Amino acid sequence: MVQGEHVTHVTDLLNRVGATGYTIINSVSGKGHHGFHEGHLLFNDTSSQVVVFTVVPDDKVDPILSGLGPLFNKHSGAMFVTDVAVSRREHFVAE
Question: How far apart, in whole angstroms, are the C-alpha atoms of residue 47 and residue 36?
């Protein structure tokens, strides 16, 4: 989860690492370490919270964590890593 102004940084990193896809959910509301974040657009889509989901093989996790670490050292956001099971595995593996 990142501020909308940083979503391009995240998607560029995922593309460089070789993630075969991702899902972006804009205008997310919630409360966290920095207080409550309203989901509606204040000025434009860069001022709201955005969630980016991706499913990648284990060997791509560390490069993603390393690439996002500096972003989260300077800006609010959250990152979650978990094991998943997928129904169409071939959609998540690069050819």
Answer: 14
Query: What CA–CA distance (Å, rounded) separates 87 from 68?
Result: 28
**How far is Cα of residue 76 from the mean position of the Cα atoms in its chain?**
12
Structure tokens given for 71? 């972003």
Q: Could you tell me the two tokens for 43?
A: 């000025």
Domain that includes residue 86, residue range = 2-92
Q: Structurally, how many domains does the chain consist of?
A: 1
Contact 21, 54 (CB under 8 A): yes
Cβ atoms of 87 and 55 within 8 Å: the answer is: no
Looking at the whole model, is its pTM more than 0.90?
Answer: no
Taken as a whole, the chain contains a residue count of 95
Task: Kindly report the CATH number assigned to the domain that includes residue 23.
Answer: 3.30.70.120
pLDDT 10s digits, 33-88: 767 766 555 555 566 789 999 999 999 999 999 999 999 999 888 899 999 988 88
